[in-house]
Amino acid sequence: MGFQTIETSNCLILTTVLVLKNNECFSTAFLFKKIKQFITMKTIKYFINFSFIALFTLLTSCNNDDDFSEINTSEPGKIQLKFENGFDNLGGIVLDQTTQTSSNGQKHKFTTLKYIISNITLIDEKGNEFDYHKNDPDKGAFVVDQDSAVANVVYLDLENIPQNKYTKVRFGIGVSQKAYLLGHNGQATFWEKAKRSGLTWSWAAGYVFIKLEGFYGTNTTDNFFLTHTGNMGDISKNEVPDLYREVTLDLPTSARVTSKIKPSIHIMANLNTYLSGVNKLTLDKSTNNVMGSSGFAQLVTDNMQKMFRVDHVHNNETIN
After folding, report:
1. Which of 159, 193, 226, 289 could be a cystine partner for 213, CB 3.0 to 4.6 Å?
2. Does this model's pTM top 0.90?
């Protein structure tokens, strides 16, 4: 007896030829046994080949993390926060042009849009926190000014960041009381920067945390408004509310800081929340000129604390 094997498009065709040898006829059962053995050996062969390919693919895919698996914890890295201000339903904000209609039907547009970001904290996948110059405005506070945005984005660059995988970011809106109470000498550099940006009152009053100005109306935007929020000096002595707020955001993918990779975290700020947040607000003669930390300013602060979200993370910027 003999077997003839034909392989076409990975299909195995067995042709069994019944022969006589020394006047003996092979039984049908014997032939089926041989066919079964043949198929079993070929199946094992293909299974081994497939398993090898699958293992190779798995190992190759795992190598995508090679850059991170070889981190040097003694060598710091960098990270970038990108702030993009807009209206969720309209896109980016062009000062003195983009007009929004609030949930109460009031039209408004911004001519000035600024706020202070400070006390940035990066949180890794194990919950460990890295504070970036906490309560040190000279090194850890930034001004986000829509007028200086590039393609509607304001870039904040952070250096000397421990190499790690970060899954959350936290930051403050404004300047904390603890930082403010360091005194002018403890933050003279940032104070002057904020002053040039119009984000200070007198030193006794302190910083303007959020500065919004523009025009509003029902059918047209002819009426001027300004909303300047912030703490009024020493809040304990002055017995005024604390408008400093902190925000914690989850990252959709981890930000991988290495000596070779400088991640960027793209944060969207939805200014719909100004009048249409948790508090539905209306501008009128009693609310169109507000400065300080009470009443309408508190409601705006509560609204704008909710305006941030992380849209995406880039891990492909190479450090030269």
Report:
1. 226
2. no
